[in-house]
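Hi R.,

As promised on Friday, here is the backbone we talked about, encoded as structure tokens. Could you run it through your design pipeline when you get a chance and send me back a sequence?
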């Protein structure tokens, strides 16, 4: 039993790398209705009160365990990972302003508002489909899969909205996007893994370090590549191990000895990758300046 607990604790830690900032579920619903229905400020206040009352009534009918599950952020309910701030599960986006704000800033017509809300609805459906199918995506890194999906959705949605706008409204729309993005809280880089190939992510880190000497840059890039590749390998191993843990747990035909062997196999694999990662991080720490080390710590590449 103790070994099982230790094993679960080891692999549960993997999920924290992609933990989403807690988002009030009532506010998510309020924002969704505000966007869809173009609510006035007075209506928003009334809707918020109604939703809070509904949630309180719901909680009163639940057990303590059920309340805990209800209060979990949406992305933490059995998912392998969750997106960053402004989560995709709700109506809000960390790059697209609410429709009501766009209506004011761009002087949208009622027809434009209706069509933009239809575009938002289609985007939400794409998001729901993505998360339903995430376990059947290409088998790659979940964060990379999400980042690629997010970027593609952003580009397509932005273009669809721009196609609805007049020439006068388009530059105002671009400014609204920039201003809204600037207001959003910074999203942790999670070891430089916010999207793109490994080489692209390493290049982003190198840009941040601003190493001027070409020979130093080449050597440093190789070490950073090694560390980040091992981080990816550890994420993949942890994700696959959780699946193996579930499979082993469900297999009632396995003897206690066979279960113990599986546990030791999984733990050994985890320790081996962690050992290599620790060594690579030590090697990297020995060649960077204090300021470079600080940047790498900020990004989670060094710990």
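Update: got your reply. Pasting your designed sequence below so it's all in one thread:
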């Amino acid at each position: 039993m103790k070994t099982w607990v230790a094993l679960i604790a080891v692999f549960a830690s993997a999920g924290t790398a992609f933990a989403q900032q807690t988002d009030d579920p009532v506010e998510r619903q309020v924002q969704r209705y505000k966007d869809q229905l173009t609510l006035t400020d007075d209506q928003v206040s009334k809707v918020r009160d109604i939703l809070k009352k509904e949630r309180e009534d719901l909680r009163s009918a639940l057990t303590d365990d059920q309340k805990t599950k209800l209060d979990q952020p949406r992305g933490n309910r059995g998912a392998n990972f969750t997106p960053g701030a402004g989560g995709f599960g709700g109506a809000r986006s960390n790059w697209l302003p609410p429709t009501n704000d766009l209506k004011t800033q761009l002087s949208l017509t009622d027809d434009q508002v209706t069509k933009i809300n239809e575009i938002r609805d289609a985007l939400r459906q794409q998001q729901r489909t993505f998360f339903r199918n995430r376990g059947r995506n290409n088998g790659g890194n979940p964060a990379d899969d999400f980042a690629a999906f997010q970027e593609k959705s952003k580009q397509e949605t932005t273009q669809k909205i721009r196609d609805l706008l007049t020439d006068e409204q388009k530059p105002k729309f671009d400014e609204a996007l920039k201003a809204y993005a600037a207001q959003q809280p910074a999203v942790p880089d999670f070891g430089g893994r916010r999207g793109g190939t490994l080489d692209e992510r390493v290049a982003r880190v190198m840009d941040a370090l601003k190493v001027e000497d070409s020979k130093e840059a080449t050597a440093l890039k190789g070490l950073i590549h090694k560390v980040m590749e091992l981080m990816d390998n550890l994420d993949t191993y942890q994700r696959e191990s959780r699946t193996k843990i579930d499979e082993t747990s469900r297999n009632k035909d396995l003897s206690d000895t066979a279960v113990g062997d599986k546990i030791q196999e999984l733990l050994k694999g985890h320790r081996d990758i962690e050992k290599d990662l620790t060594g690579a991080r030590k090697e990297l720490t020995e060649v960077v300046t204090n300021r470079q080390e600080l940047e790498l710590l900020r990004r989670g590449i060094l710990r």
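One thing I noticed while checking it: The chain is about 70% helix and 0% strand.

Thanks again,
M.
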